[in-house]
Amino acid sequence: MSSCRIRTETSSRADGTLRADAPSANVQQTPAMSDVRITTLTDGPLEVDGEVSIVAPDGTVIRETSKAYLCRCGHSGNKPFCDGSHKREGWTESSS
Ligand code: FES
Known about the structure:
Radius of gyration: 23 Å
Helix content: under 10%
Oligomer: single chain
Shape: elongated
CATH architecture of the largest domain: 3-Layer(aba) Sandwich
CATH class of the largest domain: Alpha Beta
CATH topology of the largest domain: Ribosomal Protein L9, domain 1
Low-confidence stretches: 1-10
Number of domains: 2
Strand order of the largest sheet: 5-6-7
Order of helices and strands: EEEEEEEH
Bound molecules: FE2/S2 (inorganic) cluster
Number of helices: 1
Structural class: mainly beta
Strand content: 35-45%
Distance between the termini: 34 Å
């Protein structure tokens, strides 16, 4: 989800009132607070909640989803996703 804020310029008229000028030349996009929440699970992956695109370094979209678990232990055979290997490896937050 994204939003756009349109900034209008104002100028003073001779009578002292303000006039809003057409925003066509002054459209400015600003990032909005995302609805995505990322939670670090104890001794496990990053839990991603919210509409996201997970993108490879070359820009290829790997997955568009509203829920994902991303590996942070480095042991997954399916990076960037968690495949449960953190448990098999006995990975803990304090072991990294
Ligand atoms: S966090 Fe689960 S495999 Fe890495």
